[in-house]
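Same chain as my last thread, 93 residues:
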Amino acid sequence: MRKAIATLKKQQPDYIVAEFFYGYGNNYAGVNISNLDVLLYSLQKYSAHTKVIILVEKDEYQYVDKLNDIIKLHDVLKYPVNRDQLQKSLTTD
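reply #2:
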């Protein structure tokens, strides 16, 4: 994550595709939602125009909407994800 954030400071991508893991453990207790929180907050600061595509397991899909409180998600794709789904997400506004 540190390398991804350092890269954001140097170049701002059009898209980021990331895998979502909900924070069930104590490390996330009320402060963070998932493994992506820090990255999404960094996007707000360094690359607000970057579109975020989230990949998620079906059983964790219910928690993804909470990320919209941090930054508006471009798309959320449930596993299994195929190339056509990802291509469609990358070509729609």
